[in-house]
Amino acid sequence: MDQGQDMRTGETAARGAGDFGNIIGGIRHCTRCVLPETVPGISFDEQCVCQYCRERESGNPDQGLDRERDKSRRDHWRKEFLAMARGRVRGRDMGHDVLLAYSGGKDSTYTVHLLSQVFGLRVLALSVDNGFMSPGAMDNMRRVLDRLGVDHMLVRPSPPLMRALFRRSLERELYPARALLRASSVCTSCISVVKALVLKTAMDMHIPFVAYGWSPGQSQRDRCIIQHNRQLMRSTMGKTRDILVSAAGPGMAAYFPDLESLPAEPPREVHPLAFVEYDEGRIKELIGHFGWQQPVDTDPNSTNCLLNALGNREHLRRYGFHPYALEIAGIVRAGNMTREEGLRKLQDTKGEAMADMVREMLYADAAQSARTGTDA
Questions:
Q1: I need a labelling partner for 311 at 20 to 30 A (CA). Which of 59, 155, 357, 359 fits?
Q2: Residue 327 domain-assigned?
Q3: Would residue 340 count as lying in a domain?
Q4: 57 in a domain, yes or no?
Q5: What is the distance of C-alpha 305 from the center of its chain?
């Protein structure tokens, strides 16, 4: 299937009526990584091996060489970023070197450590409370940032406005199919607000870099340092702003920078986890020394957000595949997670009760508005 086509076709659409367990039951997965057959554009051979694994194996029968190439690539990007950072921040006597989107999850917590302790940069951690942040993640933020001595800014957009955005994300087709290959519609809406606020704040405070704690499976490994073009940024952010405003109302525009007054050289976007070997177990062990603890109130694929379970379930119902499938498959393929652990993350049904609870929270004010005759 072409990735630009509607992903809700055939057998996938028929699965939409079932619960999480019924949706994932019977779906074939690649026997090398964990890609399910329902991901658009995926093909299996007679051994049930996906084309990505076939390409990796046919191009290099020695998996050790693959790992060497990955290491060489990581080293290259790390050196390039450090040289770039030294050049951009040299002579800056005040202010921050980099603004990090900080969720309190394991990946962004590890990124705080990399930027501040390993790379020696002055970090401002910016957290956006979407109204569904895990209390455990909030506690982790305070403990970790106190321990590392990193400045912190917490932004809490209007809760009714954010809930309206998330409801529309569940109910409507807001984004093209390609945008939903690696994230649910709910998460895409949320990260759009986060990215807008991150860029707006960095521009207002003249911070030369913005960083995200995205795992190697979430970001393109050859685009881990991005210099945005002002004209292109104006176009892409304008389209995103219009989508959010159409979905939830004009209040969404306040979270975006003034697109007519963008600086000639916008902040560079950096994905530091692409510079290092990604090992989830080692990451959790390291950040545990800074006071980070595994939250008990999130689903298996999130360490910061209660809404994630609902977004995952609705994505499965609508499209027939888990929004984390491509990310986790990439990590498994790189040898940084076992296939068994990857399958566990994709097939775990523990988030079902949480998804029900969050859905009730999300629609509570809409139900109240219907009773009182006011707008939600």
A1: 155
A2: yes
A3: yes
A4: yes
A5: 11
pLDDT top residue among 52 and 89? 52
> Contact, 154 vs 182, CB < 8 A?
no
What is the domain extent for residue 102? 10-370
Look up residue 39 and give its DSSP letter. S
pLDDT of amino acid 217: 65
55-76 residue pLDDT tens: 887 765 455 556 677 788 888 8
Domain count along the chain? 1
Contacts of residue 185, Cβ cutoff 8 Å, sequence gap at least 6: 169, 170, 173, 174, 175, 311, 314, 315
pLDDT of residue 336: 84
Which of 155-169, 173-187, 337-351 is the most confident on average?
Answer: 155-169
**For position 173, which CATH number holds?**
3.40.50.620
Residue 4 lies in a domain: no
Rounded to the nearest 5 percent, the helix, strand and coil shares of the chain are 55, 10, 40
Helices (H), 25-158: 51-59, 63-89, 106-113, 135-148
| Token digits of residue 20 | 């999480």
Total-model pTM: 0.86
Q: Round to the nearest angstrom and report the end-to-end CA distance of the chain.
A: 38
Please give the average per-residue pLDDT across 342-354, as a whole number. 85
